[in-house]
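My current task is to audit a protein record that another person submitted. What it holds is a sequence and that sequence's fold in token form. Thanks in advance; the entry in question is below.
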Amino acid sequence: MCGIVAYVGHREAAPLIIKGLKRLEYRGYDSAGIALLDENQLNIYKKKGKVAELENILKDKKLHAKTGIGHTRWATHGEPNDVNAHPHYSHSETLAIIHNGIIENYAAIKQVLINKGYTFESATDTEVLIKFIEDIKKHNACSTEEAVRLALNEVVGAYAIVIIDEENPDQLIAARKGSPLVIGIGENEYFFASDATPIIEYTKEVVYLDDFEIAVVKNGKLNIRNLQNQEKDAFIETIELELEAIEKGGYEHFMLKEIFEQPRSIADCLRGRISSENAHIQLGGISNHLEKLSKAKRIVFVACGTSWHAGLVGEYLFEELARINVEVEYASEFRYRNPIIKEGDFVIAISQSGETADTLAALELAKSRGATILGICNVVGSSIARLTDAGVYTHAGPEIGVASTKAFTAQVTVLALMAIATAHSKGTINEDEYRRLIIELESIPDKVADILTQAEEIKDISKLFTFASNFIFLGRGVNFPVALEGALKLKEISYIHAEGYPAAEMKHGPIALIDEDMPVVFIATKDSSYEKVVSNIQEVKARKGRVIAVVSKGDKDIKGMVDFAIEVPMAHEMLQPLLTVIPLQLLSYYIAVLRGRNVDQPRNLAKSVTVE
């Protein structure tokens, strides 16, 4: 991991690649580097830290390269430092490589190469791969592209790679398995990147490389083959992403922009899929599977992080409305415990990027066991979208902040649409309830906009908790996953230890932590658990805990007993997470900003986790 940018064409490669790497900074990284083929000389420049530090190294150099590769690294093998940063040279220094992913059998390959006399400067699997490729090229007297193909037939693991060859200055070689790679096609020029954000300034015509495919650009032409050396057609797609969508638009941080985009992103998710006038939900992506879904004995959601929390909300939605048994699994654990999957089961993957390695592995296992697999993701053309039998895009637009905000609400919106449509198809809700849920769902964007008007008030509350060391988040029922998500947001971007619990579980351990220094956040809206939550709040206040409560608009009872209250509009109980999460996102954001954190690029985190 984490970001790839490469270019071959008629432009100056270095500034284009640097700008592209900056566009990929949101993915998270700890070092950056670039390899340029300048006047037939292959040179690598790399540095621990931010892209700006790499840019400083280059600013006094006279560079005129038309071919280059660049990378931002999130450390897997070897600590973050200048040596382990990408790109890496081959033994002769005539080849260089950038690589996302993990080569699992690199140690065995490395030992073979050591026995042949090779030495290694870094602790990375990537240096092993490029030296392995050169060794194959030397001993088989073959081209670089053929050596890449032969090498990739021997390696085990995940990869997206781009290779530059000093002997072929107008050539780049790329390949992928389990890690995203997109190729932009311009006028006599080609762009390679981990996603479309570095490309859209120059072209909207792209090819998404599939697993086990190798792309070679040479003499201005693109050729794609698989690992069996069979030629493949390049399927060119037009991306709809606009440049403005990946810029801050006047906001201090991408995260704040994306929080404030949620009225629009939820509306975009609903657009064309829901009509209160006709009392109808239309989900074209899964329309052919809806009847089968309504008859499913079991649904399994597989996801990681924030998407897992969205899956927990989905569990409440499907069980309450459609009366279908639901399990929510961490994708990272699912494949390792020999899960019981039967034909007739639905396994639904939830992922913002559509590239999460653990989630993809879980889907492949489920597919091999005969389950119907569906996907909920944001990125068109992503690996999950291609692997699944069907699915629904969230249409949230690009999410640049590493900590997910609008991705969560978009995922919950899709899950609500699916659950309501399934319940209607199954007959577990009547026509009146169906219509009421549709009307309620259509009102959510305006209600989110209403909550966002309280941003300054939430900022003022945040100032009082900047120096807290711990937080507890509590919720009941469908708001329990919101408590988990609130705690995750706070710890991700402020580095404050935070835990989320079902409110009733407080008495089974966490209550021991309550004192005057412990902030406790309650989701305490008026729903079927309201009276119980009131009792839980009283228990915390009796122990001098400081309480922040998210309450229903007009609720004076809880307001009178807590330290701080943030109001949200009334909504159907099953749709409340779309509202109650918004104050928690803002609270986390403002606390992190006041603590001086890098909100958009929190330490140690990557946006798209493409390794297991």
